[in-house]
Amino acid sequence: MTNLISHYIDGARTAGTSSRKSQVWNPALGEVAAEVVLATPADVDAAVRVARDAFEIWSQASLSRRTKIIFNFREIMNARKEELAEVISDQHGKVVSDALGEVQRGLEVVEFACGIPQLLKGEISVQVSTGVDIHSFREPLGVVAGITPFNFPAMVPMWMFPLAIAVGNTFILKPSERDPSASIMMAEMWTEAGLPPGVFNVVQGDKVAVDAILEHSGIDAVSFVGSTPIARYVHEKATAHNKRVQALGGAKNHAIIMPDADLGYVRDQLSAAAFGSAGERCMAISAAVAVGGVGKELVEELVAKAKIVRVGPGRDPASEMGPIVSPEALDRITCLIESAPRQGADIALDGRDIRVPGHEKGFFLGPTVISNVDADMDVYREEIFGPVLVALEAQNIDRAIELINANPYGNGTAIFTSSGESARRFQREVKVGMIGVNVPIPVPMAYYSFGGWKNSLFGEKHIHGPEGISFYTKAKVVTSRWPTSTNAVTAGYHFPTAE
Ligand code: NAD
């Protein structure tokens, strides 16, 4: 019998009311490993009801109690991170060491959230007028939802829920239907950590569940991470339903390689950034822009390095890169590679004919390098989201920056150079949110916020870090006076001014 992955509502697994299900693949084997239930609007409503009830209790829990529970969660996840990484690898395909890395980066947000008593401190100004003080503090919003993509089934939810819960909200996670098991493991860890039932819930599903979340009047805010068309849709619909929303979208991350860069270092860094996790990272480098004539040598170096990447099942410790998540994703990437020579580019390294012994049905695609690419070609315009690096050339740094700024995405970018002046210009002129200087995947630490510009983010706030605290709370400012018989003030009909 196929394993059935359920929702997690009010502290327990539940199959909900739907008869609709979706298949969950083991991409290394090319086999269906499980099915996941797909929520109806009634299932979403059930989760919202328990989350609203739980909010009444959780928002009143003391900061010390909340901190203790988050700390317990951190300890439990830390003890079980290998198990979680294996579950991620089995459904996503990424190698276990990479899955462990995403769990670790998620745990760092949990650790940041353990500092919530410090992070939630308000401000006070005394004697702003005679006998008058002002103080401010922040309160939770209510029930917040997180809708997350397949490529980081643990880390991206952990960009959201540790802070949302730490500040006193209750949370409904709608994970990707392609790798849903990590969400249930995390829900069970919360229960074990002592989180009251209903504070963290998981609703499995597809567009039906997403629409029910966006339309539900009992949900106050939505954090979304996924592709650009869906991010735009989520932002528009959630806003129309009067919700606070942050929607992080897709990416086309460029690396500029200046002629003064160390090509050996660039080759190693770019290969890892383009082909790690089979390129299924929102911060993967997918376009290399060689400046000032270093293009030919760069492509040769990259091909030599990419050829020796060990592609295999994620559970094999010898593998450096696993399979693509699903047969549909593999088809889409393959079609895009096919379009490149038709549109005038060269396939310098072709990963399509790879064979992984013992895993013939798996969704494998080897590292692929496409050279002589220009900005009109599909392989440049589309987010490929696979192990495909396209190489372009630019006469000088001005042209390279223009190219990046003309691209509709603005998630991440990097420059490789030994010139401080080039690096300084680059970081000031480029219209992108996350910037690396000789660092190819500039995902900041948990105590900074993360997010792109342009079509990579709809909404105002970046995710986690200080902006995460701000997104999940709203401010109150209190002005107070304690009049006594000895400091009486007279009320006037003019607008009050400070004295
Ligand atoms: P996706 O947009 O297909 O799915 C994301 C979520 O939206 C999932 O939970 C899915 O169930 C839901 N969804 C899918 N189609 C929908 C529809 N028509 N209506 C309503 N909801 C829908 O994204 P994905 O393929 O799971 O993830 C990969 C994408 O996510 C890439 O574009 C990648 O760049 C992006 N991503 C961005 C970041 C970032 O920080 N900006 C981080 C990770 C991933």
Structural key phrases:
499 residues, alpha/beta, Aldehyde Dehydrogenase, Chain A, domain 1, Aldehyde Dehydrogenase, Chain A, domain 2, seven-stranded mixed beta sheet, six-stranded mixed beta sheet, binds nicotinamide-adenine-dinucleotide
Q: In short, what is this structure?
A:
38% of the residues lie in helices and 22% in strands. The chain is α/β, with parallel strands linked by helices and 499 residues long.
Write structural notes for this entry.
- This protein is of the alpha/beta class and 499 residues long.
- It folds into two domains: 3-249 and 456-478, Aldehyde Dehydrogenase, Chain A, domain 1 (3-Layer(aba) Sandwich), CATH 3.40.605.10; 253-437, 3-Layer(aba) Sandwich (Aldehyde Dehydrogenase, Chain A, domain 2), CATH 3.40.309.
- The chain contains 16 helices and 23 strands.
- It has a seven-stranded mixed beta sheet with strand order 15-16-17-14-13-19-20, with helices on both faces.
- β2 and β3 (12-14) form a beta hairpin.
- α4 runs parallel beside α6 (155-166) and α10 crosses α11 (295-307).
- The radius of gyration is 25 Å and the shape is globular.
- The mean pLDDT is 97.
- Residues 147-152, 156, 174, 176-177, 206-207, 210, 225-227, 230, 248-251, 282, 383, 385, 411, 452, 456 line the site of nicotinamide-adenine-dinucleotide (NAD).
The value of Rg in angstroms is: 25 Å
Please report the number of helical segments: 16
Tell me the name of the CATH class of the largest domain.
Alpha Beta
Count of domain modules:
2
Which structural class should the secondary elements be placed in? alpha/beta
Mean pLDDT: 97
Strand percentage lies at 15-25%
CATH fold-level topology of the largest domain: Aldehyde Dehydrogenase, Chain A, domain 1
Number of distinct beta strands: 23
Distinct small molecules? nicotinamide-adenine-dinucleotide
- How would you sum up the global shape? globular
Would you identify the CATH architecture of the largest domain?
3-Layer(aba) Sandwich
For the biggest sheet, the summary is: 7 strands, mixed
- What's the name of the CATH homologous superfamily of the largest domain? Aldehyde Dehydrogenase, Chain A, domain 1
Strand arrangement, largest sheet? 15-16-17-14-13-19-20
Task: Summarize the amount of helix as a percent range.
Answer: 25-40%
| Measured distance between first and last alpha carbons | 77 Å
Unreliably modeled segments: none
